[in-house]
Amino acid sequence: MATIIYPIIQNMTIVNGDKLPKTITITDTDGAPTDISTWDFSMIVKTDGNAPDTSAYIHLEPSDFTKSSGVASFSLEAISGSDKLPKGTYNYAIRVDKPNSRKTYMTGKLEIAESPYDGEAQ
């Protein structure tokens, strides 16, 4: 059985318009992959960590994550254009729903950096 110390704190940075693939590997104390087949992952990104989840800029559902043999993967995109997140620092949380519990697995700051690339040919 895996013993996980919650939450893991990790800050991330993404340049506006880019995709950030992220992989979370979960192992037991011996390094063997943990069975996460019954776990559901979700992610929220919001300006205020105390604000309700309904105010989140980004909300990834369990279907946005792929899972296999102790590995959960997702891709986060800082959308460009009118729907983009403004440059700045946000709070994020990745939650794990297990059959009998719900915990914040990972949390931290998500920085959205402005892209120096404007899409025009030089």
Task: Explain the overall architecture.
Helix content is 0%, strand content 47%. With 122 residues, it is an all-beta fold. The chain has a single domain, classed as Sandwich (Immunoglobulin-like). Strands 1, 2, 4, 5, 8 and 9 form a six-stranded mixed beta sheet that branches. A hairpin with a 2-residue loop joins strand 8 and strand 9 (101-113).
Features:
single chain; 122 residues; mainly beta; 6-stranded mixed β-sheet; 9 strands; 0% helix
Secondary structure layout:
Elements: E1 8-9, E2 12-15, E3 19-25, E4 40-46, E5 58-60, E6 66-68, E7 71-77, E8 88-98, E9 101-113
Parallel strand pairs: 1-9, 2-9
Antiparallel strand pairs: 3-7, 4-5, 4-8, 6-7, 8-9
Q: Percent of residues in helical segments?
A: under 10%
Number of strands: 9
Residue windows where pLDDT falls under 50 for at least 5 positions: none
Number of domains: 1
Task: Give a brief rundown of this model.
By secondary structure, this protein is mainly beta. Helices cover 0% and strands 47% of the residues. Strands 1, 2, 4, 5, 8 and 9 form a six-stranded mixed sheet that branches. The protein has a three-stranded antiparallel sheet with strand order 3-7-6, with no helix packed on it.
